[in-house]
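Our consortium's second objective concerns turning raw sequence data into structural hypotheses that experimental partners can test. To show how far this objective has progressed, the report includes one record in full. It was chosen at random from the queue rather than selected for favorable results. The single chain below, 721 residues long, was entered without modification.
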Amino acid sequence: MKLRAILIVFILLTLVQVSNAQNYPHVSIRDIQFVPQDSLIAGKDGSPYIGDTIQVTGIVIVSSIVDPTFDRRPIMWAGARWQTYLQDTSGTEFIGLNIIQNDTSGVNQNSLMDLIDTAQIVTIVGVVEEYLGKQTQLNVRAIYPVQFSGQLPERPAPKEITIAEMNTGAAPNPTNIMSSGEKYEGQYVILRNVISSNRNTSTGTFYINDGLGNSMYVHDQSGYFTKRTHKLRDFEPPLDGSTIAYIRGVVGHNYNPNHYTIRPIYPDDMFITDSPPAISNIKRNTSLIAPNQAVTISANVIEYNQGDSVVYAKVMYRVNGGPLTEINMNKGANNLYSGTIPGVSLDSALVDFYIKSQDATGLVSYNPIDTARGKYFYLVLNRPLRVQDVQYSPFGSGYSAYNNYRVTVSGTVTADTSDLQGDGNQVGRRVYIQNGTGPWSGIWVFGVNADALKRGDNVTITNGLVTENNNNTRIDSIQQIIENSVNNPLPPAELILTSTIATSSIVPAGSVQAEQWEGVLVKYEGVVVSNENADGNPGPNGGGNSNFGEIVVKDASNVDTRVELQEGNHVYHNQWIAGLDTVTGNIRVKATDTFTQMHGVLFYSFGNYKLVPRKNDDFVGYVADANEQDVPEITSYNLDQNYPNPFNPTTTISYSIPKAGFVEIKVFNILGQEVKSLVNLEQTPGNYKVIFDGRDMTSGVYLYQISIGNFVQTKKMILMK
């Protein structure tokens, strides 16, 4: 009887929730997605329903999980979230929509999103949002269960399209054609007779090409088409130059750079007809190479089509950018080919190479695929290895010469796990060491042994494995860490311009210009906050908004770049979750706020290089711009008494300036010794606020002083801990 009563209550609650859902308007997918042509030509593709809670009905294109009873792994990977795509039959354009449920824990599992299956007709209540400002999606309101109203024999037939409708230009940097491609966003489509390229053997992604110079990225969101941890089967992306009779999937966006992608779903969504020889498992016979030491390069070369044969395999190499030389590779057992590059006498010489092979049908393959940016290389060194050698990546791929080899290097810890604690989700705690200053001098070290390190420790990392983790070079699987000394001064932060790092649209992943500073302690000067949320509107993540703790800043170069606030251990935030601004001592950063300096470690994630500050002292001279419209004209200079006073550990200092000028605000101890510089920059007339953080100082009386032109004023404040 108890079970029956519980079921009755659940049914009644569900009926009430469905009834309440009827209060929201029912909107077609086409109405949500449709954007007028003139807006698309102008580069605007946002839905008119962004932020609205609505109901939508459509046909399920893909199940959210493999099996609700026996295999609850997601098919379309979105972390712990449930995701699917819906399509309606109201036309042939603007009829697909991404559906995602962000919270799948606890009572939110009652949404029934995990029970949806391919070709079902369902109605879902959610909030329309624009993910990263590019892809329209419906964020499911889990309190309203999915309504099931029918089942079709199969999912809708895919819409036949061409790459030329989506993108123009070659891989890996085609440009999207919004005016003709946006109408297929989220829709199930098919492309025929394409050629593969730019194969990524780490993720399983690749590009398809139409033979006319246009390309499209094949995203590995589906567990059936990836080599990453969310894989549902063993999968190898097609070899470069493979002929693909057809590939089906849903249209999405790639966020770095911005172009349309196709996301195949089920295993039968791609059919390969022919491929060139497969070149894999490239190795050299030694990690460290001394002058005059010959190096043997080996690779597995296998013909895709039975009956065809490999005509040749060659090592194509050069020394210090000189002429290209080819070495024939000899075939051994198990299709293992090898060739030897002669020794080079020059110390610090750079030798780069790639493998080329051809089969009897004339099809040619290369490894790496991009023989300009992706070449393998090694250094000829007559000295011990340094961090700079391990991090060095001169061609733009971002990969180290020692990738998948073990190395021993030394450096001083510039960030420990008390500094960089991660975002609590996809990015974890991190430790960095640095060897001196300059490009390539910093690197991420990872593992249980590394977690015990502290800032200022000078250490030797012994026999660590160099790997590439989400486009970041790191040393993990460390055999031993030797502590040489403690409490060493850190290398000074390297001053660079925001234009050097920039955003991903200007500096793609792997650009040497930005890559050389990966893992290095750097700083920006004279920073202005351009946007308090790099990925959405001001305010918390959720409810139609995307906020991942990143702000956009720029310096005198006037070029925007990202700063990640969520991963450091400090009080500065952009309200990535609700309530952060109610925590005592927290400081919310907003657009037009300024900093004299920002320090941090340079990191790469989710398509962008970004500065990651560690603790409060990485933020120098924070000024909250308190200018507002319709305020009385400022006629005199003024320095207000700090508030609160006494304070612990932070206090706000407000000031006004009637004329533009160079403003300095400094803090002195009672002996008149300068202890901190809060403001040191040119400012326009207005009212301003600056936060003084005294958590690293002792209790006592301090003086703070403003200087601008001939105006100087000093006041007293009390830090009481």
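The partners drew two points from this record. Residues 1-16 have pLDDT under 50 and may be disordered. The two ends are 62 Å apart (CA to CA). Both points have been shared with the crystallography group to help prioritize constructs.
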